[in-house]
């Protein structure tokens, strides 16, 4: 028999978690203050692009295990376990805006009609568990019956469903053993290893993981810049490094750096929290700076590929989403790169298979295309910013025919340098030797 679960917040994490909990047999109601969104969700109209999510939602709506409501109070009263999955946006200072968490928790406290477990799923800085516990106590009284559990989410956009059903680990931070074990049982059918820790460690595991992965990406990007000066190939360097089991082969893909709703925000938040605690996280600071610089270096590379200036040149950017299989453009490298090139006088075009609508709001004056070949027709350069299959699998002969000048600047290293030169392109990528010189003889 499944649990009666309420999930507050139908953003990425809330929606995916709610649908997955329903799929494994729990009775789930997802609640949100946004009535329009709830209406759409009731009709299985999913506001985000996430492969497989619409089927999952439709199936579980059909079975009756998943419901959507704008009546948060009733959702809380009817549930035994309440997940808080509201947004925690970053502020300019790097601090996290916890107002939605605070609001949700007060609302839960106002409707504690019996023992409930309040699970914090939103990404929150260390110390939030204690803040939530205290807030509920103050609002609901000393005799209120509840436990708080910290259960951070590690899913990646684009593979969120798979990640939810097959996570590498489930982290549960609690002060009550009973509550911790009950939350572990919610995930039992996944067969994943559960790590039981104190609440502060749970909160830090999430930030430490994201910070470490961000640092790994910035490290490989710095190595890529060194490779370019030496004739080495970053793909081979990364492969050789990754064969060492202590390093591992993942997150060593050089390119234009990380974006998205998590890494940029979470790294800055962790830095902010650490500073407030009197800890100066130098590696994390550098990882953030390297990531910001990597986009600018790439914009420079585009200019160099066009003989030093993009002024009045037509540049087609392929891919706007911060990574493939999502329409999320938050902190996407492509947006910054487009802005810089536009400021330098380029006429910008952009293609993305799913993100043009969301990106369009941030890109005034940029012509947007949903067909990759139309985007490059007559352009002076094709610039790859997201490694979509639709870009990787383009017919390169057709690309060559359509471009006005055969310049390809590849920010995700999706094409084979030797082949590109053989096909007659002036091809530039990240951290790989200048193929023009290397293969000049065989063209
Ligand atoms: C990330 C974490 O992976 C996830 O555990 C956490 O819950 C949320 O943040 P997500 O932002 O969805 O997930 O995407 P991820 O696949 O981690 O990629 C983040 C960014 O890093 C993307 O812009 C991607 O292009 C970039 N990246 C990733 C690289 O540049 N190189 C790599 O080797 C890996």
List keywords for this structure.
443 residues, alpha/beta, Rossmann fold, 2 domains, 8-stranded mixed β-sheet, 19 helices, binds uridine-5'-diphosphate-xylopyranose
Question: How would you describe what is shown here?
Answer:
The chain is of the alpha/beta class and 443 residues long. It has 19 helices and 14 strands. The model has no long low-confidence stretch (mean pLDDT 96). The structure holds uridine-5'-diphosphate-xylopyranose. Uridine-5'-diphosphate-xylopyranose binds next to helix 9.
The number of helical elements comes to: 19
Main sheet strand line-up = 3-2-1-4-5-6-7-8
CATH homologous superfamily of the largest domain, by name?
A: NAD(P)-binding Rossmann-like Domain
**Radius of gyration from CA coordinates:** 24 Å
Task: Please report the total strand number as a whole number.
Answer: 14
Strand content: 5-15%
Overall 3D geometry?
elongated
- CATH topology type of the largest domain: Rossmann fold
Low-confidence stretches: none
Distance between the ends: 67 Å
Mean pLDDT over the full residue set: 96
What count of structural domains?
A: 2
Binned, the helix content reads: 40-55%
* CATH class placement of the largest domain: Alpha Beta
Largest sheet: 8 strands, mixed
Structural class: alpha/beta
> What ligand molecules are bound, each kind once?
uridine-5'-diphosphate-xylopyranose
Architecture of the largest domain in CATH? 3-Layer(aba) Sandwich
